[in-house]
Every structure is written in structure tokens, then in C-alpha cells.
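The instructor's notes for this session suggest beginning with a concrete chain rather than abstract definitions. Hand out the sequence below and ask the class to guess, before any prediction is shown, which regions might be ordered.
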Amino acid sequence: MTNFKSEDFRGRYWKSLETDKAFAVERPVCYGPAIAAQERQSSPFLMFKFISEWIPYQYTDFFEESQSFHDSAYLGDWSPLPKLKISGPDALDFLQYHTVNNLRSFRDMQIKHAIQLNEDGKVAGEGILYKTAEDEFRYMGGAVYWLQHWFDREPRDARCEIYSPDEFVFVVQGPKSIHVVEAAIDSGLRDLKFNYWTACRIGMHDVRILRTGITGELGYEVHGPVEAANDVWLALTEAGQAFGLRLLGGRSMIVSHVEGCFPTIGREFLPATSPSVGHSRAHSIDIRGGSLEWHDPSELFRSPFDLNWDREVSLDSHDFMGKEALQCEVAAGGPARRLVGLVWNPDDVVAVYASLFHEGPRPAFMELPRVSHKHAMDPDAVLLNGKCIGVSTSRVYSSALRKMISLCHIDRDLMTPGTEVAVVWGDKGKDQVHIRATVTDLPFKRDNRRTDVSLLPDFLSSKRSDGPGLT
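After discussion, reveal the predicted structure:
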């Protein structure tokens, strides 16, 4: 369909990120749209860099915040995610060619996990795509600039606009999220199915409510204009008080992704839009970080099959960029490696902390609940009998499981739960230790995203009928 190659995007995009400029003008502003409300709620007031914006590092402590989506619900700020709107008669055709999913069956108000590839069948980006009107779609995720790049080079009867700074994205996740959102909109949401959205009002502001789940629990997103961000954030906070709502800072954000097995771009894999040499500034890939010895970014690219996204790939319905490469991968028997979970040996983990108080080697400190001082991929080598057979990523401490866990891209013949391996802990060229780990199925916890909300208590109705209400 096109003679352009990914390298054309790389050269254009990386050159645009001038290091002598304060920030790229097409990206969001430096602080989140609800920072005025968040500043008075976070104590101490420390900041966390999330893509191109600063959000609170934490509000209380990581035990409480990373536990909240198991017990009650959390409210987090994902406004920095890039956002794209595409509309017009050819909008669907364009998206279909640049998405592995079959979009021809796209229903009104539906949401899809959309995946984009480069010509070699490696993931360039992924995110959520949803239909807002006839021939109008919105995309939020890791391939916004990638899609814009191809749109500019393929004549279409459509319009494409990056509107990242114009909308906030607040996320409410957890078993009580339905009650929080219903209280905030003062209306029922029991008819809203998983992966669908609806239009609502919070106070005087029009918003969109999306039923999604980046935690593996019942969950919702609230999208709206940045001018309303402070009001909506405070309204959600007030509505959630009766249900034990907690505010989620950047420190604990990634914990739920790992527990629920939601591979994260720039952490589980390097986007295939990255330069062929050097390192990716967009995802802060530190070539010195982690114990894995790698030499070219392409070694950290992944196909959707590598990431267990088989169900999203539709090889029979349409043509798309990278399809031939995926067909070859299937013909060869599938990917050489697959994604599994690792549970780290608690005695070996404790020994790393004990090394702070004894003579001898002192490997890298295991920050809790995860590395939070940088937005980076630190891949660690996974060994069996001295041979590297996998890559461990996104190590986190799960306060709910009381375990140190990580995701692992491992040789497919070693995926059997219970397989004993060793993670090499410690950056290259520094003190390192081997930590025993056990392969486990994913996700680490039960997937509750499709919870039947009709079976949950209806506090809103009881409040309106002067019943026992929210007490």
C-alpha cells in the first residue's frame, strides 16, 4: 500500500525532539490538568514524571495505594497519554490497515485494544481505540505519532488531529469503582458493558465514561476537557469517600499492570518505532540498566504473539502493515518465546536488602514497590543452567500477594508453571546476584474486568429512596 518505511518515521520524529527546547509543542503541558486539586491532596508534595507531565509521586503510601484496587478503588491520572482523533469517510480504512484487529465489526460506542506493527511484524504501539460518531474515532496510547506519520503520507478523505493537551483522562479502578462513578454522575451505569463507553455529566461538565480495566478489576475511565479537570477530580474524590476511594500516585501505578498482566510499552518491550542504533529518548531506555546484555534496540522489539496478544490479531479478515511477517511467524510454529510470570524467591530477595548491612558485594537496591525514579526499561537476564533463556521486566512488589513478581519473556518450552529459573539482579558492570524465581501462569490474580455489575449493591437507588444510603 505504501513505499514508505519505518526508518522514515524514525529520522523525522527523533530529529524533532530538539534537546535545547523545553518541551515539544505537540505534547501536553508540563503539569497535569488537575494539578491544583492534586497539590492540596498529596503530602508530602513530591512529583513523578509521567511521559511529558508531572503528577504527584504518592498521596499516602505505596502499601495503601497499590492495595486499593483490590479492596475498594483508586483514582489515578493518566492525562499525559497521547491522544489522536481521526474522522472522515476514509478514517476506518486507514485505521484498519494500521491495526491488527478486525475493525469492520466496530459497533457504536465500542472500545477495542488496538495494536499497530511495523513492516517486520513488531509492535510499534498499542492503546485503546473507540468510536465517537459515524466515521469518527479516538485513539489513546503509544502509537499516536506513528499513526500521524503514516496519515501524513497516505492521501485520504479524512482528518487527523493530535489533541493530547486538550483532554484529561482519569481512571477509577477496583471492585467499588462502579459506586464511585455512579455517585459522581448521579446516575446508574449498570447497562454499560465492558469495552463500551457512554456520555454523562459530572456537575456542570460533559464527560465520557469508558468501562475498561487496566488492573484486571472492574474499572472505568473518565475523559473530558482540561478546563473541567479540577472540578471533575474533586467530584470523583468526594463521591468516593463513602467507598474507601484512594488516590493513586506515580509510585504505584505499574503494580496493577503487572499483577493483571498488561504488558506496558517501554517496559516489557521497546516500541518498534525506535531508532536502529542508540537508545530511545521517548521511552528513556537506559542501555546500562538491567543485567541483560543487548546491543541493538531491535533485540527488545516484540511481536503481538510474543506478548500473548493472539486474540487481538486477525490474519484472515484484512490486510495490514506487518501481516506477512506474522504469517511467517505462525508458519514457523509461533514465537520462540512467550510471556509468563515470575515469583521471586523471598529468601533471595531479603538477602539483597541484608547486603546493605554486611560487608561484601552490594547489588542494586530493590526500590519498593518498583523502580520509580525513571520511566525506563531495565531488562534482566533469566538463566537456566547458566544459559540465558529469557528476559525479566517490570519487577514490582505486590502488597496484595506479598511477593516480589515480574513478567518474563521466556523460551516457549520452559513456560510450564513451576519451572525454576534464576534472575540476574544488578546492572551491567556492577555487583550482581542470582535470585531464584518460579514460572507461574498469568495473570497473577483473577481477571474481574467483566464483573456483572447488575449483581452489585445499588447504593444510588437506596440513597434516592431514603433508604440506608451510603453508611
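Then share the key points. The two ends are 61 Å apart (CA to CA). The longest strand covers residues 387-398.
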